[in-house]
Give the backbone structure.
Amino acid sequence: MSRIAIGAFVLASIFWTTNGDVESGNRFYSKGAFAKALKAYKEAESDLPAKTYALNYNKGTVLTRLKSYQSAVIEFQKGCDVHDKSLRARCYFNLGTAYALWALEKEELVRSGKKKDKKLKEDKIDDARQMAKRLWRNAVDALEQALALDPKMADARHNLEVALLRVDPACEVRDDKYEDNGSYKQAKPLATKSEKWQSVDDLVLCSDDEDWYKVELKKAGRLQAEVKAKEGGTGKLSLELYAPNGTTRLSPKGETPGTEVELPNVPSSGHYLLRVRGIESAERDYTLKYRAIRPCSEKEDSFESNNTPQTAKLLSAKSYKKLMLCRDDLDWYRVELKRDEGLIARIKFSGDDGKLRLRAFDSTGTKALVTATAEEGGVYQLRLNNPGAGSYLLEVAGIDHAETPYELEVKVIPPCRQRDDKYEENDTPEQAKRLKPGIYKKLQVCKGDPDYFKIKLGATDSLFASVTFDPKEGKAPKLLLYKVNPLQSTIPKPIGLPTGNDRTRLVVLSTPGEGEYFVRISGEIGYTLALEKKPPCPKGDDAFEENDYPANATVLKKDGTILARVCPKDNDYFKVSVPANHQLSASIVFDHNAGDLDLSMLSDDGKGGTKTIGSSRKSSPKRPFEALVLKTETAKTVYLLVDGRKGASNFYLLDIKRKKLPPPKNDKKKNDKKKNDKKKNDKRDKKNDKRDKKNDKRDKKKDERDKDDKKKQPPKPKREKMTPRKMRDEMFKKKLESMKNKRNLEYEKALRQSPLRYENSRKNW
């Protein structure tokens, strides 16, 4: 490391005073007692004028010795305003030196990685590196000013050379630890212990140089690598992959340079070579990322070989981890189901090395029954609902030659009777369970085993009943309502018209009359039952009132479904907070025949009010619901408004769900195509601009030539003002001119009218 010279301390020659504290400070400084010298200078400040430049200079020099560089810089900046040229030169010299020593301190902090500066956290090491660069630039500015004032200052010249090398060092000085690796024979090895992406930072490529690295790979393994240039520098970088002989290029294909290479199937074991070179004499700092993957045969799971339906391995109901699917391979598994049992299978994988597909087949493996669909958390799931007793096969396949580890979970669904809810036995009207208004979750209805519930209504009460279910579990259950007649022994006809969507069935009875009412659910599926009875509005409004305005909107903190009611000429507002990079789905389901409802989404307009950002008004008797979706990259608070159209009143189910958005897809081919298209467009635009400039230049010359020609032409005579007499004379002139024409129309007309027009002259005049 080059030394940094500190300027000599100036005594009486620059600061003439009889102040005892200053003289005492000077003596302390000469003895190396810098702390005492600083104390003496501070005591002298009270007895001296406000602007004592030499004292600021002395304090700055002492603070530099004490390594208080920031305070020293402040003192020097005050002292450098002095009019004395000699003192100003020394002040700028010491100011530049203080900046340089401060920069060295920051560089040492970066190298050590320790928290010597209490204000600097470990995650801000890069900030210290950037600060060191700024300090070196400040040092250069100050030292240049010192030399401008005193060109003979040797220490200033030396310190300036050191600072300039730090601000813009030669590439050879900055070269990385892997040098000398300028040829394939000098290639430096890269570690391959882990299969995860590994990064090599702080690499430097100098102009007209190459960097070679070697990676040990086994046959049938894989290699991925990419190079990324850092900001600054000149030119572009190119990454190439070569065979162990150093001459056969394997990637990229063709002549077009790139920054990413891949070897999907290593042909033979050996040290493969990565070559980083510059395009157009590039000189850049860069990062090299690579990933060496062992052959899949070394990582296969204990279920191999299970590549065909005939070799499918038997699984029990549990989770299986550390499974591996090799490239262009299939994994088959077998599950035995008893009568009335069902099957749930889930597969989970990272997706970094491609996607997998999970399907269920019959016992022969020839008929596909169902394909897994995406769930939350990167999980794909399939479900077989009571397919019958027997063997069923699961197939795991890679999409687009995927090779990746995965986890598989198998769950056997017990027979429906074993999953019955706590309200059993309630299979007949006599066994019907009495319920209060509310929402009842985790209920189960089985085939041939309906569920009966009952609820009592007053004379003016209205009834709302709904069942919510997951369509993946089976067919939609049937929902029917009956009114109990004590004098009738048979079950009466159902009342109300069931409606809903693919997840909900509901019935609304508006003031059907006082009495006991049955709710009957049939089918084979799990469900949630919602019941509500209310007197007429406004007394029968829901529990969320008052929520008629955004200011008193009901806050919905959790996702899920709520049962509410909107009264005539009423509004229901709900407030929902949506995190950044999330999607909000909101929907209402209601009986359209009982009253049409609308759903709107609003947000703050920044002026104390709200603005509509979405609305849904598409419901009909066959489509009794409204739905809205909002995707946002920033955290947002929205309001949901439910109101009746034309003053309608109705019950409704409001469902909200917040879901994290997937990260944007990095489609390399698409991005490359965009880049190439952009390059072509830029090239075409550049060519067009060049042509337009040429045309503009030519047009400019033509305009100048036309102007010159116009100047050379004689001026046009001015047109005389026409008097009546001149106008009459002009008319006669035109008449005479017409008679001089080769074809005289008046003469021809006279000739046609003459009796001698056909006679020829007998004499040649």
